[in-house]
Design brief:
The complex is a heterodimer.
Chain A: H1 21-45, H2 56-65, H3 67-101, H4 103-116, H5 121-132, H6 136-160, H7 164-172, H8 177-214, H9 220-227, H10 233-261, H11 263-270
Chain B: E1 3-5, E2 22-32, E3 38-49, E4 54-58, H1 65-72, E5 80-85, E6 88-91, H2 103-107, H3 109-113, H4 118-131, H5 147-159, E7 165-169, H6 177-193, E8 197-202, H7 205-211, E9 214-218, E10 225-230, H8 242-256
Parallel strand pairs in B: 4-8, 4-9, 6-7, 7-8
Antiparallel strand pairs in B: 1-5, 2-3, 2-5, 9-10
Helix pairs in contact in B: 5-6, 7-8
The chains are: A mainly alpha, B alpha/beta.
């Protein structure tokens, strides 16, 4: 009762290849290596022209040769994506909370939010450029437009899904509507909100490329747009590689944030399989 | 302070009235089926609980026991009849501890809601942890605690709400038999130290006989009071006491009829 814990016998050894670092890194590394190998083979032997599909070796070459150019433009795009995601998260969480609290607001605006996702960026981009010019603001608007939606949907569903018994209990403890949100609904929704954020970062990069296509003088999207007519396809692909790596980095950063912010959820997921 | 409910569910929570008492008179409550036809949960229930009394409500499943507690807690309003009850707090079968809070923050939740700072709330909850056999587990997360310990923390949360009436809804129903017995003894001790008016809903007749001053037996749905048994036994009680065993048999008999 006082929790005197007797030492348990050592747990059985974890299943082979599961928890060791090599076991986790090796399979995806092999898969990527195999895909790159096949691609190289296809680009060299196949009938597709170099300027349509460059070989991985050419892309690697471009990555190194144009490293200064690529780096400068990556910084521009990274800044747009970072800030754009931030805007989308603030907007997404705020909207989800507002729609959760107000049924009227939800009935009025939810269909509009869904409709906003059907609007092709190419249609609104010129308007945004007219309103906000060629600076960073229209880029943020486009990125936010592309990626706020998954944040709203996942967060709102999770807020609505809070345990009704929990809310009853809080009512008998005299919690206000706001306190019920603060103590029960918001923390319960956090894991889902972070999942929404992960989806958002994955699409934010595409949003940034769209935004730069619509009108810009720098950034990796702009670089691609210029490289393709100049038949510098390897450079365009090098930009894609960087964009993909950046998306993976952002996604992983959110995964780390999730572990810190929702330790209880991680623990439950890992549960009995924890080594 | 008193809750008086004839209609809207959350209306007056602060009408002056008898401290710690519960009075139900002719209380009925029905729910609508999906097709709109009403399902009566409780029908014409009269129940008076004196301040400091422990009353156990036993009955077959689906006899509206939980509805009764929610009426007393002001979570529902009766369709007819009157509910007059001092401020009541609910302790459900599931502990419903918040997984993102430590044990002590869960126990002190009502204090935080009442406006205390986190430090103040912890300071007030801390001495109870030692008293109630939870010392050293203040900072543990709910998933690190056993079922019995989680229920203790849930009970502390209920106590710390400062309300005179505790509504316990099958508080140990989810525990294994051994832990349940241990927790029943623990609860008897806890109530001896911190007397409150208790309305205990259970389907375990033995639990009722061990803990209550009086047992109220409800009929199958819709729930009506069909029998009342006084348990005039000294505490602490032993489940093997022949008087207690006889009472248990009488309660079971009343349940069957």
């Amino acid at each position: 009762m006082s929790g005197a814990t007797t030492p348990l016998p050592a747990p059985p050894a974890p299943p082979r290849g599961r928890s060791s670092a090599a076991g986790r890194v090796l399979p995806p590394a092999l898969l990527v290596a195999a895909l790159i190998g096949l691609w190289e083979l296809y680009a060299r032997v196949g009938s597709v022209d170099d300027f349509i599909l460059p070989a991985p070796s050419e892309i690697a070459d471009a990555l190194w040769r144009d490293r200064g150019l690529l780096w400068d433009n990556l910084l521009v795009t990274a800044q747009e994506v970072g800030l754009g995601v931030l805007v989308a998260l603030v907007l997404g969480f705020g909207l989800a909370a507002a729609l959760h609290f107000s049924g009227t607001l939800r009935r009025g605006t939810y269909p509009l939010l869904v409709a906003s996702q059907a609007v092709p960026i190419v249609i609104v981009a010129p308007l945004l450029v007219v309103w906000f010019g060629f600076g960073i603001v229209p880029k943020l608007a486009i990125i936010a437009l592309v990626c706020f939606f998954p944040v709203v949907v996942t967060t709102l569903d999770a807020l609505d899904g809070a345990d009704p018994d929990q809310l009853k209990l809080l009512r008998t403890l005299d919690a206000s509507r706001w306190q019920a949100f603060r103590y029960a609904e918001a923390p319960a929704a956090l894991p889902a909100a972070l999942s929404g954020a992960k989806i958002a970062v994955a699409v934010a990069v595409i949003g940034a490329v769209f935004a730069e296509y619509a009108g810009s003088s720098e950034g990796l999207g702009h670089l691609m747009l210029q490289a393709i007519p100049q038949l510098e396809t390897p450079r365009a692909y090098a930009a894609v590689v960087l964009l993909a790596a950046f998306a993976v980095a952002l996604f992983s950063a959110l995964g780390l944030a999730e572990r810190r912010l929702v330790p209880w959820a991680n623990r439950r997921q890992e549960g009995p399989n924890r080594p | 302070m008193e809750t008086r409910l004839e209609a809207p569910a959350q209306e007056p929570r602060n009408v002056e009235g008898p401290a710690g008492e519960i009075h139900l008179a002719g209380v009925s409550r029905a729910f609508a089926r999906r097709d709109g036809s009403p399902v009566p949960a409780v029908a014409g229930v009269d129940l008076d609980v004196a301040a400091g009394e422990t009353v156990a409500v036993v009955g077959p499943s689906g006899c509206g026991k939980t509805t009764l507690l929610e009426l007393v807690c002001g979570l529902q309003a009766p369709d007819s009849g009157t509910v007059r009850a001092a401020p009541a707090v609910l302790m459900p079968q599931r502990d419903l501890l918040l997984p993102w809070l430590t044990a002590i923050d869960n126990a002190a939740l009502a204090l935080r809601i009442g406006g205390a700072s986190r430090a103040q709330a912890r300071e007030r909850a801390h001495p109870l942890f030692a008293q109630f056999g939870l010392e050293g587990f203040e900072r543990a997360r709910p998933h690190e605690l056993s079922g019995g310990m989680r229920q203790r923390v849930a009970f502390l949360r209920t106590l710390l709400s400062g309300k005179p009436v505790l509504c316990l809804d099958e508080p140990f129903g989810a525990l294994d038999a051994l832990t349940r017995r241990e927790m029943q003894e623990w609860l008897a001790g806890a109530l001896a130290r911190e007397p409150r008016t208790v309305l205990l809903v259970t389907h375990d007749v033995e639990e009722a006989v061990l803990l209550a001053d009086r047992i109220v037996v409800l009929s199958p749905r819709p729930g009506r009071v069909v029998a009342e048994l006084a348990v005039n036994l000294p505490r602490p009680r032993a489940a093997t006491d022949p008087t207690l065993v006889a009472l248990r048999e009488r309660a079971l008999e009343a349940l069957r009829t």
